[in-house]
């Protein structure tokens, strides 16, 4: 059996490897497919696809599944929906992601202003100079503050300055779940609720969310995930059965920004079988008829 990873980040958002480097690593690990799912952007996909043609074994080619991870608002909380098998040229989706990027930039300007008020010399321009064309996230703030001696570590930066309850934190303006799922479908893709247990809702609240999102057309749920422990995967699989959702799996690889999570294997024992792709492709085919 060959294995896949359907939740992967590059430096097009808050990962540390370029799309080409991610592909090279995936090929070295003999993965059969990865989904590049950078936050609110499709920017790294063409590079990844080109790299896969050049770097993977012709007898066992590495498949690049175009994706993104879209932040949506639910009860004033940030929930993530993965879009998989996307048409990266879809104008409606690209326009929406560009608007989300603009709102993210406005939020970043306000956050850097608040941090400067606390004596931290940080600007969006400095972050962009360090990170190039990446979609700037709080992970980039943390990295900058640590490298410039304002915090001891990225974790320290989040605990002191970047967590949701910090006076320096600025909430973003998000898409609604219904809109995000609709955009993914318009771009020919599948909408998947990412890491459902990471939001720390109790099971009754989580059932409420999944039921609502399923009503909007949610296709799948990320049941196989790096941070799962104990009975976590079984819990998510039961929700999938209850709402007729497909199972997906991903490491949430970010390179050195999450050094304890490896591509393909997560914390060491993650195994996502290639066979998970079959029902996804079947649903996409049925939808296109």
CATH class group of the largest domain: Alpha Beta
Q: Count the beta strands.
A: 7
CATH fold topology of the largest domain: TIM Barrel
Return the string of H and E elements.
EHEHEEHHHHHEHEHEH
Biggest sheet architecture = 7 strands, mixed
CATH architecture of the largest domain: Alpha-Beta Barrel
Helix content range of the residues, please?
40-55%
The structural class is alpha/beta
Number of domains: 2
The CATH homologous superfamily of the largest domain: Metal-dependent hydrolases
| Poorly predicted residue ranges | none
Helix run count:
10
Mean pLDDT: 95
Radius of gyration: 19 Å
Strand order of the largest sheet: 1-2-3-4-5-6-7
> Separation of termini?
30 Å
Pfam families: PHP
GO molecular function, one term: 5'-3' DNA exonuclease activity
Protein name: Phosphatase
Write the layout of secondary structure elements.
Elements lengths: L3 E5 L10 H10 L4 E4 L8 H11 L7 E12 L2 E8 L6 H27 L6 H8 L6 H10 L6 H9 L14 H10 L3 E4 L9 H13 L4 E6 L6 H11 L3 E5 L26 H12 L1
Parallel strand pairs: 1-2, 2-3, 5-6, 6-7
Antiparallel strand pairs: 3-4, 4-5
């Amino acid at each position: 059996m060959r294995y896949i990873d359907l939740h992967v980040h590059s430096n097009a958002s808050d990962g540390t490897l370029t799309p080409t480097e991610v592909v090279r690593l995936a090929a070295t690990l003999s993965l059969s497919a990865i989904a590049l799912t950078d936050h609110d952007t499709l920017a790294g996909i063409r590079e990844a696809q080109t790299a896969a043609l050049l770097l993977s074994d012709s007898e066992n080619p590495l498949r690049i599944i175009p994706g993104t991870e879209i932040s949506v608002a639910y009860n004033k909380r940030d929930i993530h929906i993965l879009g998989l098998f996307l048409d990266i040229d879809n104008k409606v989706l690209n326009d929406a992601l560009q608007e989300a990027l603009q709102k993210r930039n406005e939020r970043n300007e306000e956050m850097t202003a608040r941090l400067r008020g606390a004596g931290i010399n940080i600007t969006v321009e400095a972050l962009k100079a360090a990170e190039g064309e990446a979609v700037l996230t709080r992970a980039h703030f943390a990295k900058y503050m640590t490298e410039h001696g304002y915090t001891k570590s990225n974790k320290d930066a989040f605990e002191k300055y970047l967590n949701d309850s910090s006076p320096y934190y600025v909430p973003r303006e998000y898409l609604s779940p219904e809109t995000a799922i609709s955009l993914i479908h318009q771009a020919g893709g599948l909408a998947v609720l990412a890491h459902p247990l990471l939001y720390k809702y109790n099971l009754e609240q989580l059932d409420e969310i999944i039921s609502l999102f399923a009503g909007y057309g949610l296709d799948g749920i990320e049941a196989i995930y790096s941070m799962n422990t104990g009975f976590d995967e079984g819990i998510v699989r039961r929700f999938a059965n209850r709402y007729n959702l497909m199972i997906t799996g991903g490491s949430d690889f970010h390179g050195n920004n999450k050094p304890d999570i490896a591509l393909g294997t997560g914390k060491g024992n993650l195994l996502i079988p290639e066979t998970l792709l079959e029902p996804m492709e079947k649903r996409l085919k049925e939808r296109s008829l």
